[in-house]
# Entry
Amino acid sequence: MSTQTLNSIASKELYVQYDWYKKTFPPVVQEACDEFFLPGFKFEMIGISKNINALMDKDSYFVTKIRIDKQYDMFFRSSEKAISLILDRALGKPNRSFNLNRMTDLEAKIITSFNDYMFNMASKFLSPPPANELRRTNFDVIHLTFVIKDVDEPKFGKFIVSLPAALLNPDTIASKGEKFDNTTFKTSTLDVKIKIGSTKFSMYDLKNLDIEDMVIFDNSNTKKMTLIIDDYEKEINLNPNLGLITPIDNNNGGDNMGANNLWDSIEVEMNAEFDAVKITLGELKNIEDGMVVDLTSIYGNKVTLRVEDKVIARGELVIVNDRYGVKITEVVAQQKGNTQPAAPTDDFSTEENPIHTEEVNPHAEDSSPAADQQDEEFDYSDFELDDEDI
# Structure
């Protein structure tokens, strides 16, 4: 991250000083405008920053630099749209659109005079420059960004006042102690995901997945799971629930013996995670490296199996040797266009295959139960191959 970016978003002192800037300078800017042009404009401060680049965007600006002393200056930057608003009210609407590059001497003098007038009012809130003969070529500057609006028309522009930080003495808001008792939140809960593990699964096995089948997750460990909150992941240590241990024979699927073409042999990654696991903030705060987390209560929750984040099936967690597995209780994914699983076939491009012959009306409402489900179901056709590829 660049220094400019850090200055623009991570200046903690500006957070506690913002209220002082908000109360001090917007009234001055508004009063100067009302006295110079008469009422008709409204100034609203929308930001404070140490980085001018984050404020100016791609607009063109007219800049007035006013010398405070040999070391310090104040800058006033008016966007092209802001100047157009001001001149329309001061001189009347012209026959041509305002262009900053074709600004006349009269127009420039009006804006410069206004900035001089504002400087005289705002400088009252600056401290006297220190008695130092050393000329500084660079100094910290605070940029106050305003939006100027015409009260009679839906038009606005941007106005930026740049002040030398060394001449400012802003008040800061000091904390008077903790407003909340942290212990209050320890029992509050939030929804998290608990990833159990993953495994490679062939399209043949996936296509023929059925209730009572068992899926063993090669990339799992009965003593570890992964806690996921948004983009944050944390591996947690567990005391496994030994009551989940179940015997299994060596002939339970996964050998691809029924695969009879390239499509059936394709392997995809299947992930398993608990549905809507709730954990307290106190438990979350206490999760540290090496700590064993007690998640006994989640073992009774349903487990969802996903491929490419699409729901395949749901089931119950079991332990087989030192790996987690899932005993299928519900198969969600079905062959597209079928209510029953289609029998495997060597040719996936024939007319009998409803994947290719189904006509879809893009304007018709999807009345199938899957259309109302929040989770997107797996579509086997995503992995189809053309005849020449088989």
